[in-house]
Structure formats: structure tokens, C-alpha cells
């Protein structure tokens, strides 16, 4: 199998894993678990509520009180970031396994290493774009970078994006990724 074909197979496999994870997250994100609690995909990770057990301005729950309500929420952006990270972690794990196999030749190990580096680069660029977009005053943002395109979902106070908003975000995405405007898709979160 040629090196190019192997690399393409790895890239296609990663893309399928990312799409499958996103589809599963979308399908199950709003449904309750069988025991009546919220699905883990709807928890908002990284908020103060997960560290202290309370939100700003709230008293701590009484001893023995059920804290399930403290940890639930339906934040699209947190859920999308979590799904994206889980898919990337899964793809990186597969690449690491391929590189670590004893009978793997040097070319396969090098391609796996390159794939890991590409995913790490995507992760850094997505985070940079998200930070720059929110620094421009937008409520929240999540970016999904691919081999030759990027999608950016933005939350605004009005819920809509103007032409000026699209131009600002496109400029950020172009400068961070090097992609042309035709490879950048920007949409407002509903």
C-alpha cells in the first residue's frame, strides 16, 4: 500500500470518527438517561459549579441534598467542544496504537505521527480562533477545522450575524488557518 493511500485512509478514518461522534452527540444530547438524570453530554464542563458544587451567588447544597440539578445544562458550545475533543482523543489513540505496533514499518509510524501533529495543530488553531472571536465581543464561539476548510459557529447577543460580523470572523479564520474565504463557513447559533 502506498504511503499516500495509507495517509488518506488515516485521514478518512479520523473524519468518519469525528462525524460519528458529532452525530451521536446531536442525537443523544437532549435525552434523559434511563435513571431520570440528564445525559452526561448536557453537562457544562469547566464552570465554577463543577469545581465548588455551587454557582456564583448560590449557597452550598445541604448535606445529603441531591446535587444533580447543579451540574445540568444545555449549552451547545460546551457540548460541541466536548464532542470535538472526544473524537480527537479517539483518533489520536488509534494513531498512537498504529505507530506503537511492533510489526508497523517506519512509514506507518511516521504517517501516524504526522496525523497526530495535524490534529494537534487543528486543536491549537481552533482554540486560537475561538479566543480571538470571543475577544471581539461575541458571546461564544466554537470552531471545527478540517483538512481544507473550517466551520465557525458564533453566538451573538442578537442571535444573528451581520455582514460586518461575518467579515470580522472570516478575517480571523483566514489569518489563523491560511485558508481562503471559500473554505470558511460561518453561522450563528440558534
What is the helix fraction of residues, given as a range? 40-55%
Q: Classify the secondary structure makeup into a structural class.
A: mainly alpha
- Sheet of most strands: 3 strands, mixed
Strand content: 5-15%
Short structural description:
The protein is mainly alpha-helical.
What does this protein structure show overall?
The chain is mostly helical. It is built from five helices and three strands, in the order H-H-H-H-E-E-H-E. Helix 1 runs antiparallel to helix 3 (76-100) and helix 3 (76-100) runs antiparallel to helix 4. The relative contact order is 0.11. The model is unreliable at 31-41, 43-54 and 61-74 (pLDDT under 50).
Helix and strand topology:
Elements: H1 3-28, H2 48-52, H3 76-100, H4 106-135, E1 140-145, E2 150-155, H5 163-177, E3 184-188
Parallel strand pairs: 2-3
Antiparallel strand pairs: 1-2
Helix pairs in contact: 1-3, 1-4, 3-4, 4-5
Amino acid at each position: 500500500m502506498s504511503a499516500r493511500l495509507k495517509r488518506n485512509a488515516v485521514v478518512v478514518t479520523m473524519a468518519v470518527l469525528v462525524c460519528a461522534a458529532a452525530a451521536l452527540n446531536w442525537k443523544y444530547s437532549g435525552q434523559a438517561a434511563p435513571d431520570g438524570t440528564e445525559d452526561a453530554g448536557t453537562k457544562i464542563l469547566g464552570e465554577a459549579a463543577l469545581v465548588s458544587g455551587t454557582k456564583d451567588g448560590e449557597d452550598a447544597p445541604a448535606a445529603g441534598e441531591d446535587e444533580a440539578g447543579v451540574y445540568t445544562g444545555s449549552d451547545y458550545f460546551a457540548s460541541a467542544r466536548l464532542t470535538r475533543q472526544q473524537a480527537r482523543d479517539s483518533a489520536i489513540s488509534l494513531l498512537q496504537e498504529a505507530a506503537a505496533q511492533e510489526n508497523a514499518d517506519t512509514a506507518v509510524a511516521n504517517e501516524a505521527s504526522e496525523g497526530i501533529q495535524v490534529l494537534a495543530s487543528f486543536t491549537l488553531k481552533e482554540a486560537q480562533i475561538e479566543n480571538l472571536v470571543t475577544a471581539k465581543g461575541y458571546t461564544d464561539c466554537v470552531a471545527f477545522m478540517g483538512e481544507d476548510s473550517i466551520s465557525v459557529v458564533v453566538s451573538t447577543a442578537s442571535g444573528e450575524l451581520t455582514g460586518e460580523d461575518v467579515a470580522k470572523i472570516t478575517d480571523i479564520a483566514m489569518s489563523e488557518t491560511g485558508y481562503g474565504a471559500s473554505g470558511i463557513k460561518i453561522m450563528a447559533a440558534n
